[in-house]
Amino acid sequence: MTEPGHILIVDDDRRIRELIRSYLLENGLMVTVAGSASEARERMRGMAFDLLVLDVMMPGETGLAFVHALRETGNDVPVLMLSALADTDDRIAGLAQGSDDYLVKPFEPRELLLRIRNLLRRAPPAAEAPLVVHFGEFQFFVGRGELRRNGEAVKLTSSERELLRLLASRPGTPLSRQELAPSGADEASRSLDVQINRLRQKLEDDPANPQYLQTVRGAGYALVTSAAGAA
């Protein structure tokens, strides 16, 4: 694959989903998280994902019911199920509902990563993202998360890189705060504000009046690229 897979992690345990999120980010994948099946549906309305990592036992709609509903509507996104239920019958039930793989908790993160990569190799990408986006003096190489200004590398943190990847995947299109701060908590919202401000310090000549990373009133944030034109 020339582009990193975009993974949606669905787990009601915030600690687990953040641990998985951090590990996958460190290994070059794009990651969005959701704490429930309903939140996952909201994410999927705004973004295309290459793979779902889905917890089986969640309050409300379970992972089994969620993947069954996805398959009933013809959605064939690859699904890797996570569960503390280790019995053979439980694994068979998960696969029977339409999941592509099943991993028992607790698991070794390296095994999770290998299973994800194997599934991604077998499946076509959900949507084509631009390999490179251009804005002003900048080039952002989406696949390797590399930002350059007039050919010189600009250092990004892993959080800044993920945020820029999300924005660059839909250039010129506003992404909501909920899409960019998936956990939805006040802490995550404040963190998003910090990351936006830091990115503007690196991208904008006048961060107070941004030209590229723009706020779209009532809609969120958009990356205005050469292809997207002026907002």
Report on the structure:
The model has no long low-confidence stretch (mean pLDDT 84). The protein is elongated. α6 (158-169) crosses α8 (186-203). It is built from 8 helices and 11 strands. With 231 residues, the chain is of the alpha/beta class. 39% of the residues lie in helices and 20% in strands.
Number of strands: 11
The overall pLDDT, averaged over residues, is 84
- Principal-axis shape equals elongated
N-to-C SSE series? EHEHEHEHEHEEEEHHHEE
Total number of domains: 2
CATH topology type of the largest domain: Rossmann fold
Evaluate the radius of gyration. 18 Å
Estimate the strand proportion.
15-25%
**Sheet bearing the most strands, described?**
5 strands, parallel
Between the first and last Cα atoms, what is the distance in angstroms? 32 Å
Estimate percent helicity.
Answer: 25-40%
Number of helices: 8
**Oligomeric nature of the chains:** single chain
Examine the secondary-structure arrangement and name the CATH architecture of the largest domain: 3-Layer(aba) Sandwich
Full CATH superfamily name of the largest domain: Response regulator
Low-confidence stretches: none
What is the CATH C level class of the largest domain, in words? Alpha Beta
What class do helices, strands and sheet pairing give?
Answer: alpha/beta
Strand order of the largest sheet: 2-1-3-4-5
Question: Would you summarize the structure shown here?
Answer:
The chain has two domains: 6-122, Response regulator (Rossmann fold, 3-Layer(aba) Sandwich), CATH 3.40.50.2300; 132-223, Arc Repressor Mutant, subunit A. The chain is 39% helix and 20% strand. It contains eight helices and eleven strands.
